[in-house]
Amino acid sequence: MFTGIITGVGRIAAIDDLGNSPQHGKRLTVSTPEGYLHDVGPGDSIALNGACMTVTSLDAGANRFTIDISAESLDKTAGLADPGAVNLEKALRPQDRLGGHLVSGHVDGVGRVLKMEPAGESWELRVLAPPGLGKYLATKGSITVNGVSLTVNSFADRTEGTEMSINLIPHTVDNTALHAVKAGSRVNLEVDLIARYVERMLSAPKAAQ
């Protein structure tokens, strides 16, 4: 479980094949900020761009760790198949502050950035969510974009999906990898956990309730 509050920006430094067929996944080597891995061990969970992954090995002195990602996960996420900056968040501990919202680290869909432009002292991020996710979005509701807990300012349902507008304060842009997204970028989306359960309770047949 996570909160969507990014604790570091890392970089995918190397990508190695785990096999020679399309069904095989990849091994990613991720570099981290200095000292980031001091309390991390093999088997711990770290979210990369909002996708929960398991640390398979680490070298804290070199500020690097590895994860193995399946072909299925690569197919259902964005930003994990190529070298580049990634948002990092360690798993939530019981004593931690819940600064964002409850995030599972399971990507619900990949959205497309329509706009990332300055708006006053902040930035406006517009993202087109794929069909099927729009019912989970609400004005002032929570959405996770590449692992970052954000607030939906407004949304509009369109034939090809749901367009949402999000305001990013300078701190968020400066301290996450969202500063690198632009129109056309693909981003990982996770809808609000509570909204998912509410939808299920309302749509389930009586026999399943």
Do you know the CATH topology of the largest domain? Answer: Elongation Factor Tu (Ef-tu), domain 3
Count of DSSP-assigned helices? 3
Q: Which CATH first-tier class of the largest domain would you pick?
A: Mainly Beta
Chain-averaged pLDDT: 95
Supply the helix-strand structural class.
Answer: mainly beta
Radius of gyration: 17 Å
Helix content: 10-25%
What is the strand arrangement across the widest sheet? 1-2-5-4-3-6
What can you tell me about this protein's structure?
- The protein is mainly β and 209 residues long.
- It has 2 domains: 8-90, Elongation Factor Tu (Ef-tu), domain 3, CATH 2.40.30.20; 109-201, Elongation Factor Tu (Ef-tu), domain 3.
- Helix content is 11%, strand content 43%.
- It contains 3 helices and 12 strands; from the N terminus they run E-E-E-E-E-H-E-E-E-E-E-E-H-E-H.
- It has helices at 71-75, 170-175, 193-203; strands spanning 8-17, 26-31, 45-48, 51-59, 64-69, 84-90, 109-119, 122-129, 142-145, 148-158, 161-168, 186-191.
- A hairpin with an 8-residue loop joins strand 1 (8-17) and strand 2.
- The longest helix has 11 residues, at 193-203.
- The model has no long low-confidence stretch (mean pLDDT 95).
The gist of it:
With 209 residues, the chain is mainly β.
List keywords for this structure.
6-stranded antiparallel beta barrel; Elongation Factor Tu (Ef-tu), domain 3; 209 residues; 6-stranded antiparallel barrel
